[in-house]
Design goal:
single chain, alpha+beta
Length: about 525
């Protein structure tokens, strides 16, 4: 195989597609990796949202149950002062404050408070002095002390039900106060009051995630005591009058609870972070009309969500790696198919070149003897089948040996090329010129009668006689002799070419530079 064929399969041509495939893969990978990161973020966030929604649903149900239980207890607490105010023992003691009646009433208060979740029960006269107390037997009892300045007393004394949260003026302990007026006819003779401390209410909650805020947004109850006396976001206590604030909360420092909405590409909406902690929280709130403007909250830590970045990296490795592998397989497959197609085209071109070389004369480029005989045989059969005219001629350079001897073989070869180029330029596309010997050429002329063939061949003879070519610094002229024949119904390849060869021999014997047919001498055409 010559160098032109080898060039079709040179190594650079093999490497180049895979180099381009590598570049394409890198570019696709650069586009894929951000998309894989986004997909991994989306997957992890969706999983987190489903988990949070499930936790939220369970916790909201728990919060609803807790609020319902607390509201019932709260309602019972509020009704306790009414029970005290309507008690016969209390009324007798208020009407006839004998030792017996007072002891009986104090014992009744002690028994009632013991059976409830309250801490203290008092009966206060119209001047604000405690005349009956559930802890009357306790040396630290407030019996005889004045509560006349307390809001819960003043509200009840004015005929309303008192609801109040604040610090005790004597004990300094925060708690809730409930009060109702004690009436005798239309007159208010005193006030029945109950206090429950905050830490006593805390005992109702077994869940440390629960906390309660008042109407001013201050956390007043929580099993986790470091959360007490913090203010929720946008708490109204910030606009509260300082005097009212001190009366209600004492000198306790109220600090923000530090809840901030969590902003993260991984966390679902509705979660919070506290004071820069990494653990996100689910913050739920629920109110009940029976709780007098108290709000129950549930602050649920979600430590499992701290691992979302690790999960995203894992998902990114999984999605990104799978995508990168798929891209690699896709690029390699496409490159391989393209390379196979390229090799197929190269092979087709190489086969075509090999076929051309197998059918062409290596020097002049016209058909070689094998191809000429094959094509002529097919055309001969077609002519005989359909009765079409077909002529065949043999062209020979006169005294070609003399040209080789005088100017050298390279000049002789140039003469052969010149002759072929001249004839190829003068004949039709359907005609075929083939080299069948050293300086002999056969010319097939389909659809050509004897007279038409004679005119064409005589023109070729004259063109050769009048022309010349240059080679090796020499200008060379030569003439040709031509013999031709028209094919017959009984001809085969050998018989037709033999008659044309006989005609050529006659042209040479007749003096050369002639065109003869069927062996008859032809007169010089000049």
């Amino acid at each position: 195989m010559n160098g032109k064929i080898l060039a079709l399969f040179k190594l650079d041509g093999f490497k180049r597609p895979f180099l381009l495939a590598g570049i394409a893969y890198v570019l696709l990978l650069l586009l894929w990796l951000p998309l894989a990161w986004w997909l991994s973020t989306t997957v992890v966030r969706a999983d987190a949202r489903r988990a949070v929604d499930e936790i939220r649903m369970r916790r909201e149900e728990m919060l609803k149950l807790q609020v319902g239980v607390f509201a019932e207890r709260w309602y019972y607490l509020k009704s306790t002062p009414e029970i005290i105010a309507d008690s016969p023992a209390v009324r007798r003691a208020m009407a006839m404050p004998t030792h017996k009646n007072l002891d009986e009433a104090n014992h009744y208060l002690n028994t009632l408070i013991t059976r409830t979740m309250g801490d203290f029960g008092w009966v206060v006269d119209a001047e604000g002095r405690i005349v009956l107390a559930s802890d009357a037997a306790d040396p630290a009892s407030l019996l005889g002390r004045s509560l006349g300045r307390h809001d819960f007393f003043l509200e009840a004394l004015s005929g309303r039900t008192g609801r109040y949260f604040g610090y005790g003026s004597y004990t300094g302990q925060p708690g809730f106060y409930f009060s109702v007026p004690i009436r005798v006819g239309d007159d208010i003779t005193g006030v029945a009051a109950v206090k429950v401390r905050v830490d006593s209410l805390d005992a109702l909650f077994g869940d440390p995630s629960l906390l309660i805020s008042d109407q001013y947004g201050v956390i007043i109850m929580s099993r986790t005591h470091d959360r007490l006396w913090h203010t929720l976001p946008d708490a109204p206590v910030a606009s509260l009058d300082p005097a009212v604030r001190i009366a209600r909360y004492g000198d306790v420092a109220l600090t923000p609870f530090g809840l901030q909405a969590a902003v993260s590409s991984l966390l679902p909406a509705g979660l919070y972070l506290r004071n820069g902690e990494e653990t996100p929280y689910l913050f739920l709130s629920r109110r009940d009309a029976r709780l007098d403007r108290l709000t129950v909250h549930m602050l649920v830590p979600l430590p499992e969500l701290r691992h979302l970045p690790v999960q995203r990296r894992f998902q990114f490795a999984l999605i990104g790696g799978s995508g990168a592998l798929a891209l690699a397989l896709l690029v390699l497959t496409l490159t391989y198919l393209q390379h196979v197609r390229r090799l197929g085209r190269q092979l087709t071109t190489a086969n075509r070149e090999l076929q051309r070389q197998a059918d062409s004369d290596f020097l002049t480029g016209c058909a070689n003897r094998r191809r000429f005989e094959r094509v002529f045989s097919a055309e001969l059969a077609r002519s005989q089948r359909y009765g079409n005219a077909l002529s065949v001629a043999i062209v020979d350079i006169d005294f070609f040996k003399r040209i080789n001897d005088t100017y050298g073989h390279p000049v002789g070869d140039a003469g052969l090329v010149y002759l072929v180029d001249s004839i190829q330029a003068a004949i039709r596309p359907g005609d075929l010129l083939g080299r069948i010997g050293g300086e002999e050429f056969a010319l097939m002329l389909p659809q050509t009668s004897v007279e038409s063939a004679r005119r064409l061949l005589d023109r070729l003879r004259a063109m050769s006689e009048q022309g010349s070519f240059s080679a090796g610094g020499q200008t060379v002229r030569f003439t040709v002799s031509i013999g031709f024949t028209a094919v017959r119904a009984t001809d085969d390849l050998e018989s037709a070419l033999k008659r044309a060869d006989i005609a050529l021999y006659a042209a040479k014997q007749g003096g050369r530079n002639r065109v003869c047919t069927d062996g008859a001498d032809a007169q010089p055409n000049a």
